[in-house]
Specification:
single chain, alpha/beta
């Protein structure tokens, strides 16, 4: 994808994706579902290999990524948004707004920084800020050292040290990447404000209530099908955000909530072949019409989602 999107004119083209399976054969699936799944897969890989951070992530410089590669990433960002409203919402808000050339009021980076570092580091630093004398100094020094801090902290300078580290890691270090992204993403930023972006990223996050409301069942259902429909809604409501992302990706191709209706139908399946079957191009989910218990339903659906092996067909 980096190679393909290094073409300066690709955003003007009718882009289509075709995937090749591990056995070398082309996957039969085509259309928006495949497109969304490829964009989602790209960002999953990008976040894992080219960023740092936990809840929020910041792209990091790498010797194999020069100007053309970073510009290609920006075009992938652009086409995901232009084609179906996909935004890489794991990117830290200050970085995202700067890349989109969105003016935003001056805000403290500390809250964002605490969602960038690990929960353990956040706890150590928060405790030190609240009561420096009682803090475990070995832990504090270890955390600061991992962020290349060479200043010895004390009760009076810790806040300033953390603000400087946050600025370095979230503003200074990705400055070159932002410079490469800005010309390509500026036109997208012109269609929104910083406040709009905050609302968009909030709405794109998978939430159980929204996902449950997007499920559409057939009007006439048997008693057993009604029971399975209740199993599905219960299953959705029990998932955390990451698991909801997996569910949405299985059904729609995207791990974000894009306000698409997921149509659910039922069919007779033997116990041996029984499993949920999703058709991402049409946002259609097929379920077996009978399960003896909710536990069986949950186990089979979790097995499919956790397998990570989803082959798209033409159905």
């Amino acid at each position: 994808m980096i190679q393909a999107f290094s073409d300066n004119n690709i955003l003007l083209a009718n882009v289509k994706f075709k995937r090749v399976l591990e056995n070398g054969e082309e996957e039969a699936g085509i259309g928006d579902g495949v497109f969304q799944d490829c964009i989602t897969e790209f960002w999953d890989t990008f976040f894992a290999t080219r960023t740092c951070g936990t809840t929020y992530k910041i792209p990091t410089l790498h010797h194999s990524y020069q100007e053309s590669e970073w510009e290609a990433v920006a075009r992938i960002f652009a086409i995901g948004w232009l084609r179906f409203g996909y935004l890489p919402i794991q990117l830290a808000p200050p970085f995202l707004k700067e890349a989109l050339s969105l003016p935003s009021p001056e805000t403290s980076l500390m809250e964002v920084f605490f969602n960038y570092i690990s929960p353990t580091e956040k706890d150590v630093l928060s405790e030190a800020l609240q009561d420096f004398q009682s803090a475990d100094m070995d832990e504090v020094l270890s955390v600061l050292s991992s962020h290349s801090c060479t200043v010895l902290p004390n009760e009076n300078n810790l806040q300033k040290i953390l603000e400087e580290i946050a600025h370095k890691e979230m503003v200074q270090q990705p400055a070159y990447i932002i410079k490469c992204w800005k010309p390509i993403l500026r036109s997208i930023g012109e269609t929104m404000t910083a406040e709009n972006l905050d609302k968009i990223t909030e709405n794109l996050q998978p939430k159980a209530r929204n996902v449950a409301k997007s499920i559409k069942f057939q009007q006439s259902m048997s008693q057993s099908e009604t029971t399975v429909s209740n199993h599905l809604l219960r299953f959705i409501r029990e998932r955390d955000q990451k698991e909801l992302g997996l569910f949405l990706r299985y059904c729609t191709g995207s791990d974000l909530f894009l306000s698409k209706t997921i149509e659910v139908t039922f069919k007779e399946m033997s116990e041996f072949s029984r499993r949920p079957i999703a058709h991402t191009c049409t946002q259609h989910l097929e379920l077996a019409s009978d399960y003896s218990t909710y536990a069986e339903f949950r186990a089979e659906f979790c097995s499919v989602l956790n397998s990570g092996v989803w082959v798209m067909d033409m159905s």
